[in-house]
Specification:
Blueprint lengths: L13 H32 L7 H18 L2 H5 L1 H25 L6 H25 L4 H22 L5 H22 L7 H27 L18 H7 L6 E7 L4 E6 L5 E6 L2 E7 L27 E5 L5 H8 L4 E6 L2 H9 L1 H4 L8 E5 L2 H7 L4 E7 L21 H9 L1 E11 L2 H17 L4 H4 L3 E5 L10 E6 L5 H13 L3 E4 L9 H4 L4 H6 L25 H23 L8 H34 L2 H23 L7 H30 L4 H19 L1 H12 L4 H25 L2 H31 L6 H8 L1
Amino acid sequence: MAAVANASAPSVNLSERRWAALALFVVSAAGLIFEITLTRMFSLFFQYHFTFLAVSLAVLGLSLGAACAHYLPLARAHAGRTSLYLLIILSFAFSAATLIIAWLPSVTSIIPRAFVALFIFFLIGVFDALTFERFAASSGTLYAVDLIGAAFGVMAVLWLLSVWSAFSMTLFLGVLVAGLAVLYAWRAPDNTAPRRIRARWVQVAVSSLVVAAGLFLVSLTTTTINFNPVDLSGAPRDKTMISILQDPAQNAHILYTAWSPFARVDVVQTGDPDTRYIFADGGAGAYMLRYNGDLGTLKPLTQTVEYLPYTAANADKVLVIGAGGGKDVLLAVQAQAHAITAVEVNPAIVAATRHFGPYNGNVLDLPQVDLVEGDARSYIERTSGQFDMIYLNLVYTQAVEPASQALVENYIFTRQAFRTYLDHLAPGGRLAIISHNALEGSRAAVTALQAMQESGLPPAQALDHVWLWMYPATDTTIRTSVLVIGKDALSSGLIQTLNTAARAQGMQPLYAPGDYETLFAPLRKGVSLAAFIQADASYNLSPTDDDQPYFFNLDYGLPPAIRTALLIAVLSALGMAGIALLARNPDRPGDDTRGWAYLGYMALIGMGFMLIEVPLIQRFQLLLGQPILSLAVILTTLLLAGGAGSAVSQHWRIDTLPSGVTLAGLWIAVVSVIYWIALPGWVHALLSASVGARLLATGILTALIGFPMGIPFSSLLRLAAEHHQPVALLWATNGAFSLLGSTLALVISIQWGFQWTLLGGAGVYLLVAGIAALLLRAKQTRAVAPSAPGAAAIRRAQR
């Protein structure tokens, strides 16, 4: 490995360590806030598949910055002064990045937006690496501060994004960091500099604060620095709001805008005074209809495709999943439903609909409507109610979650969810699903057949419960389909009523029992469901599962964006490992063997942490129901518990760290295996518990594994400083392999499921424990081996 990594660092006192800890706390919080805010901005401009870039850019930027710090000997020699420079540059960078992301004229400008974001994380990486290298002996304390700062950032951003826009949020970070720079400049970290130089530092820091504060005030008082859809070019087809606003024939304009951690919500008025649209992040439009309480005005709804499921039979008690702007609720009102439970996962959409209560007749607060804000899957698992109709109309938010994981609505379309729906249907009840296209409708039908098979009803008989029609179109992605699943076998009269209504709408049959059975004819003849699915290699129509909830991924294999991300992650990890290996100093006895051990140790920690974090967030998200609450509880608990573990390890003696890391690695691996076996069952059992009980269980289960996860990283840095290893490069290696770990977590979950992702994390931490045990054994061997004359004195001098 490299020569002595921190030999040039000046001695530091307690006051400097405290200031460094304060700066690390603020920068860590700012970095996490920016990462989450970036997902909000990227979700506006890009298709949601690209929002994983926020996490990837964060990890990659931190890694590159740490690697750069290793090759800045002058910066390391004057770390205090360099930290001030970095804070000032970071403040300007936050402001500049916000302007560039907001003002680039094309939606397709992915690379420049990604680059400016990467530069911010690069600066944070340099700052973090220099701080940890300078105070490596206090890595346990500093890593605790780093994690606690990130936890504070999670809580702050989830609150502030309901107050400010994502662009104001990022500009505020410039103010925050500039304020920290002013404090740093005022205290003069380099005491040898002349007073004239220190005064100039203060002036530059104050200038950065003035610029950042000015831009922040502009963003709060005007729409100059914001998402302006009318001025954007190159919008993808699924960003419907941009197309509508730019179409002169629509005569459209935005009436209302609100931000939340879940999505930006806009209400758009077109030339039709009786209809408005609600958009989440510019896509996934929902209708808001003018309604004055007169049922006669709803009569035209009976001629729409969305009303088809109501034409066949009574629907007195209805569960609407995805209340949106209230149109689906009004469909149930028109169908004479006396009890309507409307579930909406996005509180900002609920607020927007209620804001226009006089226009829509206060649809969400009608006497027969019971509104539930939260995840529909979580709600229906807890309720004991029975429904005549469970209705899902284009349930697809198209907005990425702050954690950038699989979308919450995917849990609505799993085989476990379908079993729950069927269990909550009253005798004669129906499950109705309106899908974007026939492929989605067919996959939903196959998933329902799987659910019924698991309940003891073979597919050949279960097909009597299924009805599926679609709109004809040459483009397979716009063949809107209607699927009806009966609690009982559909009667011939009901089927004929549905057929007649669908034919009047200009639809074509995909499957109707006794009439149009070509689509599922093999299943009628006794072919197994698995064999039927495998017979068609064109699209992946296999039933989705809670462990692999990727319902909208209809192609086999990995999506192109994920393949690209995996390639970048592999190249980044290998490249960083190569840089670290080239930095070895072969002239130092034992450096080669020890260097390999440290490099592998840090790489495994980076991968293992992400392989466990991702499935934990995903699993507990289903338990808590509300995505924002889930993110706040899980990520904050994981960070705080990890910070506590790191702080505790700081009090361990250097010679006990390898054994402590061995125990921590074994702890993590054992708990992960237990969660791999038992967590799905625990989550299902706890779904019916109270909110308080579910929060408590989530916190305890997360902290139980989060506490030991904070120990290995900081312990390695302390050991690295003791053995004169390059701290900055080890930090960089950890970041690069963290990027690989987060990408692998997504790849494994898509291909095999989150349980195998978790098991992979357990295996990685077993290797961490093994390497730590080898380090301990090697240390003990050296301790009993005979030493050359003066060797002990040389080692003392090196330390």
